[in-house]
Amino acid sequence: xxxxxxxxxxxxxxxxxxxxxxxxxxxxxxxxxxxxxxxxxxxxxxxxxxxxxxxxxxxxxxxxxxxxxxxxxxxxxxxxxxxxxxxxxxxxxxxxxxxxxxxxxxxxxxxxxxxxxxxxxxxxxxxxxxxxxxxxxxxxxxxxxxxxxxxxxxxxxxxxxxxxxxxxxxxxxxxxxxxxxxxxxxxxxxxxxxxxxxxxxxxxxxxxxxxxxxxxxxxxxxxxxxxxxxxxxxxxxxxxxxxxxxxxxxxxxxxxxxxxxxxxxxxxxxxxxxxxxxxxxxxxxxxxxxxx
Length: 292
Ligand code: IPD
Description:
This protein is α+β, with helices and mostly antiparallel strands. It has helices spanning about 5-25, 45-60, 95-100, 175-190, 210-220, 230-245, 275-285; strands at about 65-70, 85-90, 105-110, 115-125, 130-135, 140, 145-150, 165-170, 200-205, 225, 245-250, 265-270. The protein has two domains: about 5-150, Fructose-1,6-Bisphosphatase, Chain A, domain 1 (2-Layer Sandwich); about 160-285, 3-Layer(aba) Sandwich (D-Maltodextrin-Binding Protein, domain 2). The strands form two sheets. The protein has a seven-stranded mixed β-sheet, sandwiched between helices. A five-stranded mixed β-sheet has the order 9-8-10-12-11, sandwiched between helices. The model has no long low-confidence stretch (mean pLDDT about 95).
């Protein structure tokens, strides 16, 4: 069945604005959850209310499509191979939401045959909207830009990892193998070259996977490396990233073709030198991530 991707894209933008209004007017209240890992694993009632609104609207208009959302996901759910699936994070950056930190977004993606094909990422605080349809480019609309094509300028060459601004995220894990691998990898990125490190320009941990991907797409981040996030944390931004010339690969050496459900990613912006930076970044990973 041919899907009108433009119509999906336009509808997702409408819903993203509605969700944004809900987020802006809500007071963060923790939702009861029996499965929390620790005090850093947060869910608010607004996450649940926004997802309910989004899924209701999408199911009414696209009754034959599947839906995967952060709040209704059950362990073991996988993406259907043959049914288009909406992949939704009602609030990507829930921890920031609790702290009124304005780096968060509603993230609405569509995958067909398990490939992300439409992405809409909206930060209601800054009114920043990133959108993309596979094969049609990525765009930014905000108070200063009206549907500007990404990246905003021709990307400068990526010389090497030492000249990069690198986003990483801790996620909610605070113990175990993956936590140790992350901590050692972050440290390595900052170590001097003589010690095998890269001395990157800086490390950012801003709290929203989707906005990080869009930041790499726009060019105000060069690299984003994370393990532990889910399909809804990356689906929409993945389309924006690749349509802006960025590249998504896996977080370990040699993984050039990651799947959207893989939970281990490395995104590098467009520009000459992209491949070299991917390989250098892989070289800094201190061990094997197990999740996914
Ligand atoms: C989280 C954010 C965070 C990332 C986590 C995600 P949520 O999403 O994207 O930056 O480190 O892995 O789970 O829980 O705020 O939707």
